[in-house]
Amino acid sequence: MAKNKTTETNASVEDFLQAVPDETRRSDGRQLLAWMEELSGFPAKLWGPSIIGFGSYHYKYASGHEGDMPLIGFSPRKDSQVLYLFQGFPEWEELLARLGKHKTSKACLYIKKLSDIDIAVLKQLITESLAHSSNG
Predict the structure, then answer these.
(1) How far apart are CA 46 and CA 54, in angstroms?
(2) Where is the YdhG-like domain (predicted)?
(3) Which of 31, 37, 74, 91 lies 20 to 30 Å (CA to CA) from residue 51?
(4) What's the per-residue H, E or C state across the chain?
């Protein structure tokens, strides 16, 4: 069975953020780090080479594959901030409709710049995600 590449590391979150080449992405990343630490109550940890995660939960699929993942997290990618949030709660769609400029995929929320969105709605998304996640 394949080994999960996204595992918690001891690498420096600050060094990782400092190496983000785009100043807006780096600055927004520092702001997301502060909000996610505050809202989750967990310290930031680097998961794999590029995900800043907070807290963790254990999962196990019917196939037998299992592992650990952060409860919430983000990654400052080249084109946008990628947020990893639990999406299976009733208010998800309504909050997204009020968030501002963003994109979503099956498991991610993409935001180009924090200035494009309603910060209060983002904080509510993070809070609700934590409340409804595997350990919430």
Answers:
(1) 9
(2) 25-129
(3) 91
(4) CCCCCCCECCCCHHHHHHCCCCHHHHHHHHHHHHHHHHHHCCCEEEECCCEEEECCEEEECCCCCEEEECCEEEEECCCCEEEECCCCCCCHHHHHHHHECCEECCCCEEECCHHHECHHHHHHHHHHHHHHCCCC
Q: Is residue 109 part of a domain?
A: yes
Hey, what amino acid is at 18?
Answer: Q
Residue 1 lies in a domain: no
Q: Model confidence over 79-116: pLDDT tens digits?
A: 999 999 999 899 999 999 999 999 999 889 999 999 99
Instruction: Indicate whether 48 belongs to any domain.
Output: yes
How many domains would you assign to the chain?
1
What CATH number corresponds to the domain at position 46? 3.90.1150.200
